[in-house]
Amino acid sequence: MSTQSARMRSMIETRNRILDVALDVLGENPDAGMGEIASAAGVVRRTVYDHFPSRLDLVRTLTERAVAEMTAVLDEVNASGAEADATWVEFVARLWPVAHRYRVLLALRRGEYGEAIHALLGPVDELLADLVKRGQDGGVFAQHLPAGLLSQVAYGVVFAIADSDRSNGTPGVRAATITSLLMLGVPETRAIDLVGDRP
Amino acid sequence: MSTQSARMRSMIETRNRILDVALDVLGENPDAGMGEIASAAGVVRRTVYDHFPSRLDLVRTLTERAVAEMTAVLDEVNASGAEADATWVEFVARLWPVAHRYRVLLALRRGEYGEAIHALLGPVDELLADLVKRGQDGGVFAQHLPAGLLSQVAYGVVFAIADSDRSNGTPGVRAATITSLLMLGVPETRAIDLVGDRP
DNA sequence: CCAGTATTGCACACGGGTGTACAGTGAGAT
DNA sequence: ATCTCACTGTACACCCGTGTGCAATACTGG
Questions:
Q1: Is the pTM of this model over 0.90?
Q2: Which of A33, A79, A190, B65 is deepest in the core (most CB within 10 A)?
């Protein structure tokens, strides 16, 4: 049906290249301007505005991408029917690369577009809170904090550790997962068991 | 010796008012301009520049204040000679109000003045890392992460929970302390014991 | 009362990012 | 071969925050 190939294709390709590069550039410096993004994508600033009328449109599209990927992972993982702590381990493992790519969103949540991003990220936050709530109700997670806050802090920590990957060697998924599990109130022995037997 | 009282006093007072207000305003919105700070302090923008030649000077002074207060607390707490986990509890308790006031620094560490702030915050980071390292060597803290990173993430969590105070009611020091202890690898029972018996 | 000075209330220059306009170019579509 | 359209290159207007300059004002100390 869509036979308008070559033209369409290269246009979509540039659009995607802009998005990919924007993620990298903004990941390095959340305050980067459209000019930097354009240059990094091997394109003129004007062209970026052809694809995304405003900077907010760019960021929004990026966020929508992230939300789509994250909810996909969360839905899949939730469907397994496993215990909450095991589900969390699976979640972190699957989300690790994604979280690293979209780490910029955590920085972008404060300032200027914070409101818009927060709104788009709402569904993800809910799914996350639900998972933690399930763990608390099941007695596998601690209850020092309300589920909503605990889930935010927990995956904030995962993002933070993923961030530090850029500096030192590689704390890696394993360390991040264990740390988040501990914070969720899972005993150390159980935490090590959960992450121990995996590919 | 310093008998130039009334004049000096009111000038110092405005200076301090500017600093205090700047902490509040920047706490709400780290991107606030000198104009907003001036207005909030009941002063004209030009006056702020009389006290602080540049925006960086303002932020630097704020940071120096924070470093002074934090190192004071850390030194005092470290001198008690108690176990690392007990010391951590004391540390969080004493630092709680301070951390809440200076929460903006965590946001300001990224972007523009990040480098300068990071440099000034260096000593605090070291003291914190030393404390965590001591706990790891003593076997009371877990070792999934290197002391430097673990300490950063741990007090990042404390700041994050302090931040959320503004939104919901009051998770409070207790919840924040327990959460950070858990993440440091302290067993839940021990953690509750540690925070349980205090004024 | 008079001098000194912190503060005010304007003014402006400067830099930097955003978003737009428009003529030109080159590769694919017809 | 010609048309179409994504992309180029350059220019411009606009907004906003920073930092500076200077005369006027108010308030305090001698």
A1: no
A2: B65
